[in-house]
Amino acid sequence: MTQPDELSEKPIRVLLVEDDEDDFVLTKSLVSTRDNANIHLDWVSDFNSALDHIYQNAYDVYLVDYRLGERTGIELIHEAFKAGCQTPMILLTGQDDLEVDYSALKLGAADYLVKGRIDAQLLGRSIRYALRQANVVGELAEKENKYRSLFERSIDAIFVTDRNFEFQEINPSLEKLTGYADEELRKMNVSELFDKADVYEQLRRQIDESEQVKDTEIVLVSKDRKRIDCLLSVVAIPDKGGVTNWYQAIVRDVTQQKKAQRDLLIAEKLSMTGQIARSIAHEVRNPLTNLHLALEQLKEDLPPEDPGLSLYINIIRRNAERIGQLITEMLNSSKPRDLELTSHNLNDAVRDTLYLVHDRLQLKGMKLVTDFTTDDCAVPLDKEQFKTALLNILINAVEAMKEMTGVLTVKTIPINERAIMVCVEDNGSGISEANRQRLFDPFFTGKQGGMGLGLTTTQNIINSHRGSIEVESQEGQGTTFRLIFPKI
């Protein structure tokens, strides 16, 4: 790109488009002065020849006469710019005509000159000014294209809003992230994407105070109601007077990173639980075996006709067996599952599991609502293990709802070509946020007499299927479990 201080030295190639040869001779004399020595002038006399030269992009500046036979210089400028020409054009007119001048500038002409008032200095200055302005505009366009490319091709979602946080500029990554099209987002406020209104309000206050936020964890909700873990950075863009009219934001999707962290934490918890369980089993099973042997020996030595003694012996035996059963459950809840995966229709597997809670629902006067996808839903499953996992969730849902008013909703929903989801919703008592965070922890339970291993087992089974499990709940409004499985 030519720099402004080079224009007085570097040759400037100028093409005059003029149908009058006398005007060409006069213009040639104006550029032949010492001040204009670096200006080299060529001449064409008709519209079509001028267009051919413009298409070849061989000149730095064009001087275009308004009258070109049956055509006009305005038409030539229009045709040139329509063809993508970015070379500056100066319109030459025979007399002052504000309407013509305005039309030329509106089309993009760099300047206009009245022929009878042109001198060598004015012509040279106009040519250099037009070329200098073209260089500046070209540099700006180059920078804009570079930053526009960064904006458009960024993997992270980027957007610009006005002071009310209404979308103004949106890159394709934001459309992909949220599932909303550009025109849909432009009708929305940023707050409509947030999972929680109070988080948005807190961020607004922080931005108002410090004019920026950096890498703040938020949860957005996509068009299909999927929750997306993100890192948000926002900066205010003030005008020359220091007034903020725009905000620029970058959103990074960290859903997979968060999932990987959760999976690692789950694996660590299960490993720890397994170690504890194995230690307990080793320490308890030996004396428990001795207890069983001693009990059998005692049973043989006691009088068989004493009903009171038989009652106590049976109580001891049942509780010893219960201890052994709890140890087995504890071991099974934490160790990786050995699965026998075969292709199963997920809808059929869900229906078979629902059959196991059908009687409970009827006895409590609860309603069952199902909505199964008609798409292909073949997934690799260990069907019995899957039924165990889903049954734990269904039983918890039934126990959380009130008799006669409970509604259990079970759906299968395709997520994409590679995954499908089982969604279990209840209108029960819900779970507090603190308890939701601990829901899959071993030995955590809200039930009286429960061991707190049911959902730990469920999570272990789902993870063994290379699936994932999500829980959404609000106290007093019910709970939703989402089980996501990879397709075949």
Fold blueprint:
Elements: E1 12-17, H1 21-30, E2 39-44, H2 47-56, E3 61-65, E4 67-68, E5 71-72, H3 73-82, E6 89-93, H4 98-107, E7 111-114, H5 120-153, E8 157-162, E9 167-170, H6 172-178, H7 182-185, H8 197-210, E10 212-221, E11 227-238, E12 244-253, H9 255-301, H10 307-334, E13 342-345, H11 346-363, E14 367-371, E15 378-381, H12 383-400, E16 407-416, E17 419-426, H13 433-437, H14 454-464, E18 468-474, E19 478-486
Parallel strand pairs: 1-2, 1-3, 3-6, 6-7, 14-16
Antiparallel strand pairs: 4-5, 8-9, 8-12, 10-11, 11-12, 13-15, 16-17, 17-19, 18-19
Domain Response regulatory: 13-130
GO molecular function: ATP binding; phosphorelay sensor kinase activity
Domain Histidine kinase: 279-488
Describe this protein's structure.
This protein has 488 residues and is of the alpha/beta class. The chain has four domains: 12-150, Rossmann fold, CATH 3.40.50; 154-257, PAS domain (Beta-Lactamase, 2-Layer Sandwich), CATH 3.30.450.20; 266-333; 342-486, Histidine kinase-like ATPase, C-terminal domain (Heat Shock Protein 90, 2-Layer Sandwich), CATH 3.30.565. 46% of the residues lie in helices and 24% in strands. The chain has 14 helices and 19 strands. The protein has helices at residues 21-30, 47-56, 73-82, 98-107, 120-153, 172-178, 182-185, 197-210, 255-301, 307-334, 346-363, 383-400, 433-437, 454-464; strands at residues 12-17, 39-44, 61-65, 67-68, 71-72, 89-93, 111-114, 157-162, 167-170, 212-221, 227-238, 244-253, 342-345, 367-371, 378-381, 407-416, 419-426, 468-474, 478-486. The strands form five sheets. Strands 2-1-3-6-7 form a five-stranded parallel sheet, sandwiched between helices. Strands 9-8-12-11-10 form a five-stranded antiparallel sheet, with helices on both faces. Strand 6, helix 4 (98-107) and strand 7 (111-114) form a beta-alpha-beta unit. It is rod-shaped and about 140 Å long. It starts with 11 loop residues before the first strand and ends with a strand. The mean pLDDT is 84.
